[in-house]
Amino acid sequence: MERHRSWAEPWKVKVVEPIRMLTSEQRQEALEASGYNTFLLRSEEVYIDLLTDSGTSAMSDWQWAGMMLGDEAYAGSRNFYHLEEAIQQYYGYHYIVPTHQGRGAENLLSKVLVRPGDYVPGNMYFTTTRLHQELAGGTFVDVIVPEAHDPTYEGPFKGNVDLCALEELIARVGAERIPYVCVAGTVNMAGGQPVSMTNMRELRELTARHGIRVMLDATRAVENAYFIQQREPGFHERSVAEILREFCSYTDGCTMSGKKDALVNIGGWLALNDAVLYEEASNLVVVYEGLHTYGGMAGRDMEAMARGIVESVQDDHMHARVGQVEYLGHKLIDLGVPIVRPVGGHAVYLDAKAFYPHMTQDQFPAQALAAYLYADSGVRAMERGVVSAGRDATTGKHHYPKLELVRLTIPRRVYTQAHMDIVAESVAAVYGARAGASGLTMIHEPRYLRFFQARFKPLHTG
Ligand code: P61
Q1: 431 is an active site residue
Q2: In the chain, what are the domain boundaries?
Q3: Biggest alpha carbon distance in the chain?
Q4: Are 444 and 454 within 8 A, CB to CB?
Q5: Is the pLDDT of residue 330 over 90?
Q6: In angstroms, what is the span from residue 54 Cα to ligand 1's centroid?
Q7: pTM of the model
Q8: C-alpha closest to that of 377 among 31, 95, 16
């Protein structure tokens, strides 16, 4: 492609789904009925849905065609073997255990490897990942580079593992208490920030010296590979597919939510290179998910995911996908709105602390900001701050993350540039009205993953 020209998505639209914006009064009512939690809105009440990129992508005609080729046999479906081949070819792992989605794989991995009293270092927590580690008796330890916690710092690889912090942990607790290092690329809670290939190579070298495994959260590893291609010296001429293969080669297995990179509405997997661990996981999967050749998915779902993997590693797809996120991010930067820098792979993250410096974190500024945004335009976003961080498993106190963010998550191949413009206008309007904004108080707090179902009310009305 000629670099000086504008670029566009490498597809055209074949099927459309109507959307509509409710009136301002209706949106206010919906917000109250949902306890100021965007997870509790009905999707029909939403105009532009940027809650998540999980399971919300548009499938291609080739994927839909594959849905008609579902082999719905209970055991040994041909679609499982297609999926297995695609994962082996593009990610490079030997053994595949299918699961209904990412957390199913996290459950299996934690049950197989984490023992009470263990420590699981990771490049920033992720909600479901950490919970499964804790439920298995482990303690998560954050070993991401410190700049990941600074929304204004413009580093190319803010998802990197802090190798010194990891060395210190190993020295403190002993390698035998660390079943694996959990590396996510990109890092969701840090703003969709990538990990460099250099960091992965060094991590591999360090952990090999101590006999510690590395497990990848591969949910957005293709987006991570795209950033390596764009930002890391020596990778510009290599394809996203090649980079992904090398990246995974420094790890011993992965958990995967196919609902993101792999362009499907449901599905996931656990991949392992070790035959003994695989034996155990493929036995456990029949307890929690389904037989080891479907793991909770229909045959057609596995076919769609096998095809989605092939499409996801195409350079032009990734260019358009991340390009759209960057388009929205740079538009907001130009409007003077504080966002996490640099712009991430799957979402633009608003810095709620910078929006509302007059609120304490106990007033849930990001939760409030997501509510104001919905009230303004029907755009649905997600809180990624103190509510998402939950409580410390031992002390029971709130975690107070440095990042108090609202995530505007872009589904793949779903919205147009015009939708992004509408979103930017609405965010700018909410930013303009920031001085008059007030916080929330939590009136219902579920025990696990509270952010999904918690309810709030305004601290002040009017
Ligand atoms: C998301 F608010 N992500 O970003 P599952 N690892 C990673 C993920 O991003 C991920 C999973 C594992 C979602 C859905 C979601 O706190 C939340 O297929 C890096 O969702 O089980 C999921 O994969 C788990 C939203 C999950 C959340 C947890 O929107």
Answers
A1: no
A2: 24-46+315-458, 61-312
A3: 62
A4: yes
A5: yes
A6: 7
A7: 0.97
A8: 31
pLDDT one-digit tens code per residue, 44-55: 999 999 999 999
C-alpha 461 to ligand 1 mean position (Å): 33
Q: Among candidates 217, 185, 196, 218, which has minimal Cα distance to 345?
A: 185
| 462 CA to centre of ligand 1 in angstroms | 35
Active site residue 217: yes
Contact between 229 and 235 (Cβ < 8 Å): yes
- For the question of residue 260 being annotated catalytic, the response is yes
Q: Whose CA is nearest to atom 20 of ligand 1?
A: 102
* C-alpha–C-alpha distance, residues 154 and 329, integer Å: 13
Per-residue pLDDT tens over the stretch 273-288: 999 999 999 999 999 9
Q: What CATH number labels 61-312?
A: 3.40.640.10
Residue among 180, 431, 451, 456 flagged as catalytic:
451
- Taking the CA of residue 382 as reference, the ligand 1 atom at the shortest distance is 2
- The answer to whether residues 413 and 394 touch, using CB atoms and an 8 Å cutoff, is no
Q: Is 80 a catalytic residue?
A: no
Question: Is-catalytic flag, 126?
Answer: yes
- Crossing angle of helices 78-90 and 299-312, rounded to 10°: 20
Q: Can you name the CATH fold of 24-46+315-458?
A: Aspartate Aminotransferase, domain 1 (3.90.1150)
Give the closest residue (by CA) to ligand 1 atom 3. 54
